[in-house]
């Protein structure tokens, strides 16, 4: 009987109430699945609720949430508190890359990207933190990118959002320590999800026909021929890292995840800017060459 009660208590302590955004695809979907399988109570949020039916069948609670809409974020958090009485972990995963030359990308589109990749992270954190502070514990996990350290042409706004996310997260980590709340960053590398399709659609929209078209073409080719082909990992790899960040008693401030991610970050740390610039441009010219099957003229980029 004692053993039974201890087991129940252990399960209760370990089982976390988790809100994860961007759960309708890619990293968010894979993470939600693994978190459910690990026995946690998962609230999966995204705009395309129909895509999350598979999570619902596995036991997740589904939230229709647009992270740029105040009401849907507020209602989502209120529902979790009403049903569970607490939120132990917030995983800010929703995000997208809008590529194009800084000169050409419409500033409204750049602002939209900041709205999703940065301000939504801040707003959802504001909504959950009072509940975490009340119990003096909790964890916020922000999905950043190796793009918060390394850089590429045509990706300026996306990288800016992730650089900003890391700056904000580092400050928050110090602010939240006094309340027993952890702030953790996860930096995926190149991961096979819907991310690159959306990013290339935006690149097509802004930079495929003007003065930057040659660089834009090389960028798509380098992504499709090489980076997302040979250096990419599948979403469950990042999901494993996220589960580790959720369950670890003493989480690191940062986790890197995915093939070659550590090497990119190390290169940024060790190499002078001029050398890294030269390497990145050389990679672009070697891997950016058109090939019959993946040239950006032949790749169908559609919604
Ligand atoms: N894939 C990579 O190579 C890579 C590398 C480094 C970092 N990351 C980061 O990892 C995170 C997940 O990306 P992913 O690769 O899994 O991309 P993905 O397959 O495109 O999934 C993105 C998710 O974000 C959600 N989302 C986008 N805009 C939203 C909005 N306004 N409101 C609510 N949800 C929204 C999407 O759901 P709905 O459209 O249904 O709302 C979707 O579930 C992002 O933060 C991304 O920047 C990805």
Set out the fold topology.
Blueprint lengths: L1 H13 L2 E5 L4 H12 L3 E6 L6 H6 L2 E4 L5 H15 L4 E4 L14 H29 L2 E6 L12 H22 L3 E8 L2 E2 L2 H13 L5 H18 L2 E2 H13 L6 E4 L3 H10 L2 H15 L16
Parallel strand pairs: 1-2, 1-4, 2-3, 4-5, 5-6, 6-9, 7-8
Bound molecules: NADP nicotinamide-adenine-dinucleotide phosphate.
The site of NADP nicotinamide-adenine-dinucleotide phosphate has 30 residues, from α2 and α7.
Mind telling me the CATH superfamily name? NAD(P)-binding Rossmann-like Domain
- By secondary-structure content and strand pairing, the structural class works out as alpha/beta
Whole-angstrom Rg = 20 Å
Structure annotation, total helices: 11
Unreliable stretches covering 5 or more consecutive residues: 293-303
The main sheet comes to: 7 strands, parallel
Query: What is the number of independent domains?
Result: 1
Kindly state the mean pLDDT as a whole number?
92
Assign an overall shape. globular
Considering the chains and any ligands shown, give keywords for the structure:
disordered C terminus, 7-stranded parallel sheet, 11 helices, single chain, 55% helix, binds NADP nicotinamide-adenine-dinucleotide phosphate, alpha/beta, 303 residues, Rossmann fold, two-stranded parallel sheet, globular
